[in-house]
Design goal:
By secondary structure, the chain is mainly β. Helices cover about 0% and strands about 60% of the residues. Strands 1, 4, 6, 7, 9, 11 and 14 form a seven-stranded mixed sheet that branches. It is globular and about 60 Å long.
């Protein structure tokens, strides 16, 4: 099993000795895909906002959560076509996403599409020097959904782990939850931000954990949870678990 930490955009420099660096021109849309049964396919669009041709690799991973963390594993249940794309400057290309498995959807399936711009050298004609293009990675969540769409059901807990306060959300429902602007408040009334903007997802029948700032302590009094969910505001209590 290979564990990844998905990032919306992760820049990576591959040739540190290049005299110049150019920002990547790859853009991917949409940034979120749903495939609702009976449909079995959707698509993403790759755009090249620059003038120089680029190449991109598209890979599909099954997305699960274990021990409160995201886990990505290669899969053929969902395929991207084509998996390698060349896009001329100022142009765009469409990549189809097809649920390839014939197994009926027993529940919501979660995937991540990693789109990597393949780095290369660009020759600067005016100076005859080579400069490095930065390679960008986009991580696009994809959800295959049955016709009978489920609902999320979150329960929260707080516990001390290795000297840190861990806030865990367990989703006992059949639909994922997207969290943003995640805040917590302890018994002293101290409210702090755990994650500004996108905090992450809690997948269906899964759990996700966050490390609270050091000022938040798990105790006999519940920690108050506040966040923006994709289906409305979330206000809940995280009750303390026994220390391990």
């Amino acid at each position: 099993m290979r564990t990844w930490t998905p990032a919306i955009v992760a820049a990576m420099l591959t040739l540190a000795t290049a005299p110049f660096a150019h920002a990547g021109s790859l853009q991917v849309s949409p940034t979120f895909v749903e495939i609702a049964a009976p449909a079995a396919a959707s698509s993403i669009t790759l755009r090249n906002s620059g003038s120089i041709p680029l190449k991109a690799q598209v890979r599909v991973f099954r997305w699960t959560q274990a021990d409160g963390k995201d886990v990505l594993e290669p899969t053929t249940d969902l395929v991207a076509s084509p998996p390698m794309v060349s896009v001329a400057g100022g142009k765009q290309a469409v990549v189809r996403l097809v649920r390839h498995t014939k197994q009926p959807l027993a529940g919501e399936e979660s995937y991540r599409i990693l789109v990597d711009e393949i780095p290369g050298l660009v020759t600067k004609t005016s100076t005859n020097q080579s400069s490095l293009q930065l390679a960008f990675r986009y991580s696009v969540p994809v959800f295959a959904m049955p016709q009978a769409k489920g609902k999320p059901s979150l329960t929260w807990s707080a516990a001390k782990r290795d000297g840190k306060t861990l806030i865990t959300a367990v989703n006992n429902g059949d639909r994922r939850v997207r969290l943003a602007d995640f805040r917590v408040k302890d018994a002293r009334g101290k409210e702090v931000v755990v994650a500004k903007g996108l905090a992450g997802y809690v997948l269906a029948r899964s759990s996700m954990s966050w490390v609270a700032p050091s000022t938040i302590q798990a105790g006999s009094t519940p920690i108050l949870i506040a966040a923006d969910g994709d289906q409305g505001a979330i206000n809940a209590e995280a009750r303390a678990e026994a220390a391990r």
